[in-house]
User: Which sequence fits this backbone?
């Protein structure tokens, strides 16, 4: 999923409260959320659907790929030449890529990947990522242990 910044779409206080409730527990029922925010279950359902449809949020199961049988997870710093967005689009087409950010600093892009084996990671880097036109160099940071992962930063 390619994400576009929504330009600061206006979120009213109720939408912010709904988002915070789902950040704490993505399985919380619409009825329970409604009690917390002062809306009916149906109204919460409609608001959540609008938030999802607009790209403001996703409701997903967050997992640790290493615990699910993937042997390797890594962050790859990518240096590019030419338009960065086109390279990011090409990287986004790769199944192994789950996260891409355009950055300032030593790398133009940071790309998080999961691979089934060391051989699969090597193939991904050598045959797929480095083969994309405009990729100048990569540096791979292997994940040894997922120490903290949270998405409950609230809303502003």
Assistant:
């Amino acid at each position: 999923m390619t994400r576009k910044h929504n330009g600061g779409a206006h979120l009213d206080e109720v939408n912010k409260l709904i988002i915070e409730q789902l950040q704490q527990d993505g399985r919380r029922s619409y009825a329970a959320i409604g009690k917390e925010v002062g809306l009916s279950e149906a109204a919460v359902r409609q608001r959540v659907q609008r938030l999802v449809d607009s790209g403001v949020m996703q409701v997903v199961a967050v997992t640790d790929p290493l615990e699910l049988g993937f042997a390797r997870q890594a962050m790859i710093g990518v240096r590019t030449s030419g338009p960065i967005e086109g390279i990011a689009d090409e990287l986004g087409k790769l199944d192994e890529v789950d996260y891409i950010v355009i950055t300032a600093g030593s790398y133009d892009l940071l790309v998080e990947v999961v691979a089934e084996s060391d051989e699969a990671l090597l193939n991904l880097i050598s045959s797929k990522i480095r083969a994309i036109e405009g990729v100048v160099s990569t540096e791979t940071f292997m994940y040894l242990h997922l120490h903290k992962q949270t998405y409950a930063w609230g809303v502003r």
Observations:
- The first strand starts at residue 72 and ends at 80.
- The CA atoms of residues 97 and 113 lie 4 Å apart.
- The mean pLDDT is 89.
